[in-house]
Amino acid sequence: MIEILQFDFMQNAIFASLLVSIVCGIIGTLIVINRMVFIAGGIAHGSYGGIGLAFYFGIAPMLGASLFALFLGWIIAYITYQNTSRIDSLIGVLWAFGMAFGIILTDLTPGYNVDLMSYLFGAILSVSTEDLWAIGSVLAIVFTFALLFYKQLLAMSFDAEFAKLRGLNVKFLYFALVLIIALGVVIIIRAVGLILVIALLTIPPYIAEKFTNSMGSMMLLASLLSSLFCLVGLYISYTFNLSSGACIILVATLTFFIQMLTLKLLKN
Amino acid sequence: MKNDIEIKNLYFGYDGVNVLEDINLVYSKKDFLSIIGPNGGGKSTLLKIMLGILEPKSGSILLFGEKPSEVTRRISYVPQDTLVNKDFPIKVMDVVLMGRLSKSKAFSNYSEEDKKIALEMLEKVGMSEFANQKINALSGGQRQRVFIARALASEAEILFLDEPTASIDTAGQIDIFKLLKELNQSVGIVIISHDINVALNYATKVVHVNKTLYFHDVPKSHNFKAFESSSEHLCPIELITATRCNHTH
Questions:
Q1: For B89, which residue in chain A has the nearest alpha carbon?
Q2: Of A31, B83, B100, B139, which has the fewest CB atoms closer than 10 Å, so is most exposed?
Q3: Phi and psi at residue B206, in whole multiples of 5°?
Q4: How far apart are CA B20 and CA B67, in angstroms?
């Protein structure tokens, strides 16, 4: 087991897993209690358009994806805040548009073939030190946001109408939350891929919600669970020479099913 | 007499269809006002206008002589007891503390003072022993008491309640109304109620809203009839008092 830790790429992967897990624990909790999984999914998929744009215009892919995700996030925040009918369909359209737009643009970019699979499943074993810095910076932003606005985020998530009546600027906070989610989602995709982002944003908070009695402890437990899934998944991936992202997701989903069944059996 | 709520010739509608027409109402906070009426008759819309969540199409509404959105700190609200997310990870105490949101500092946690007031309000509604319980461990009636404590923690002058007892059994409903009656000694109570019997027993003022608003004095003696089928065009007050109502605007 120890020899795994001697590889630089493995050290980076473990470090990335931990950083990403804390980001997921915090924003995942906010996503789950606000029922925004579909919104996060829309931003995550749609941001592929930004990657295409970045390749086409020759700018840094992460910068392109981040800006595009913030733009999509703003549109989605606007649609959902207005509570327009058919919100889910509109998000579905943006979701599909972003991906198609990104693929067409990479097609049009001469001499470059971007690997869609690494975008979907990530490449946690090839995370660079710069990537770690980028994830760390986003973690700092997410953590500060959650800490400064903890009370307000809790009030809005629990009962937005009441919070509004108590003078909270719900509109500002909601837009800020969606934009922070967009930023978090994009940076995590770079490391662990689209599918893993959605898994880590939903499964750990969903399990944690049942065993905690405050939003803060839910964030903490979700972060710990996420870290555990990542480390166990990485170990399995290394031992059996399997895809890392898929291993992590299988560990997470299996745990999810086991806790569901256990709770069901305990109830009966 | 000074009125705490004054509504004059108020209209409200969506897409050209009027939901409320020519509403006139005066209310002072010593009163216990029950708003009754059929589903879709505009009760909740009227409540939302009073809370400043919706703007009237025409006419005027004044709370304490000002626009509702200017005085949100002086009023508070108890929602229907349908908790969207039953697993929400929150303790009773933290729910009540939300009532202190506008009184506490922006970037810090709630103060000791806030916590003291929140606990006092929990005592007032008889729920202090549940302070550290998760909200999903409570029954519907207990949860509603917590929401009343939350509204009280805002130190508001009028509490607005939207069918707070809709899914609570009759005994539980009567307990809640007794509590509200007691609270009415110091704060105004404006309540939308489904259960006309209970509403009439505790209210000092009753209005019936079905697009327009009819004002009722509370009948002196109730004659609760068991009515099997209710006619759509019959005013509920008539069903209960078994007398002809003289509707006055």
A1: A213
A2: B139
A3: -130, 130
A4: 19
Looking at the DSSP assignment, which residues form a beta bridge with residue B128? Answer: none
**Which residues of B sit within 8 Å Cβ distance of A?**
51-53, 72-73, 75-77, 79, 85, 87-91, 94-95, 98-99, 101-102, 104, 107, 109-110, 132, 134, 150, 154
Q: What domain range includes position B9?
A: 5-81+156-241
CB–CB contact A165 B72 (8 Å)? yes
Q: ipTM score of the complex?
A: 0.85
CATH number of B225's domain: 3.40.50.300
Domains: count for chain B: 1
Chain B residues close to A208, C-beta within 8 Å: 89
Pairing between β-strand B158-162 and β-strand B212-216 as defined by DSSP bridges: unpaired
Rg (CA), chain B: 19
Task: Tell me which DSSP letter residue B230 carries.
Answer: -
Please list, in sequence order, all residues whose beta carbon lies within 8 angstroms of the beta carbon of residue B67, skipping any fewer than 6 positions away: B52, B61
The partner residue sitting opposite A212, judged by closest CB among B52, B89, B94, is: B89
The mean-pLDDT minimum among A145-149, A232-236, B65-69 falls in B65-69
Using 50, 70 and 90 to split pLDDT, how confident is the model at B130? Answer: very high
Contact at CB, A154 and B79, closer than 8 angstroms: no
Where b means 16+ CB within 10 Å and e means fewer, B138-153 reads bebbbbbbbbbbbbbb
Contact between chains at B89 and A152 (C-beta distance less than 8 A): no
Residue of B nearest to A35 (CA): B85
Residue located via tokens 């606000």: A34
Residue B100 lies in a domain: no
- Diameter of chain B by CA atoms? 58
**A22 token code pair:** 């804390």
- Looking at the DSSP bridge assignments, the partners of residue B10 are B23
Buried b / exposed e along B61-92 (16+ C-beta atoms within 10 A): bbbbeeebeebbbbbbbbbbbebebebbbbbb
Q: Which CATH superfamily is domain A2-267 in?
A: ABC transporter involved in vitamin B12 uptake, BtuC (1.10.3470.10)
B87 within domain boundaries: no
Q: Going by C-beta distance under 8 Å and a sequence separation of 6 or more, which residues neighbour residue A130?
A: none
Tell me whether residue B118 is in a domain.
no
Give pLDDT tens digits for B97-110.
Answer: 999 988 777 788 89
Q: Tens of pLDDT along A131-181?
A: 899 999 999 999 999 999 999 999 999 998 899 889 899 999 999 999 999
Interface test with B, best of A36, A144, A158, A209 (most B CBs within 10 A): A158
Question: Are A260 and A207 spatial neighbours (Cβ–Cβ below 8 Å)?
Answer: no
Is the Cβ of A209 closer than 8 Å to some Cβ of chain B? yes
